[in-house]
Amino acid sequence: MASANRWLRPEVYPLFASVSVAVGICAMQLVRNITTNPEVRVTKEKRAAGILENFEEGEKYAEHGLRKFIRKRPPQIMPSVNNFFSDPN
Does residue 13 lie within any of the structural domains? Predict the structure, then answer.
């Protein structure tokens, strides 16, 4: 019974959480590339097409929703902290 609890120490939970988040991000990026990237062709029929000049699909892939959302935001991580330390008032 003591050997079963050896791997369940509370000090290891943050490590498991950070590794799980990293693996999740990698898996999400792999699925996104396979399903939506115009340069990745999984099926044999699409691979036989050769090089495609499909700029609209590439632009749609590069300009995804997160990038459009971030573009409208100020380039600051914590604007309230930056304003607090930079305002002379």
Answer: yes
- Rg of the chain over Cα atoms, rounded to whole angstroms, equals 23
Same domain for 28 and 58: no
Print pLDDT tens along the chain (89 aa): 455 556 678 888 999 999 999 999 999 999 988 888 877 777 777 777 766 677 777 777 778 888 888 888 878 888 888 888 887 77
User: What's the domain range around 13?
Assistant: 1-36
* 30 and 5 inside one domain: yes
Q: For 63-88, b where at least 16 C-beta lie within 10 A, e where not — what string?
A: eeeeeeeeeeeeeeeeeeeeeeeeee
In a domain, 69, yes or no: yes
| pTM of the predicted structure, to 2 decimals | 0.53
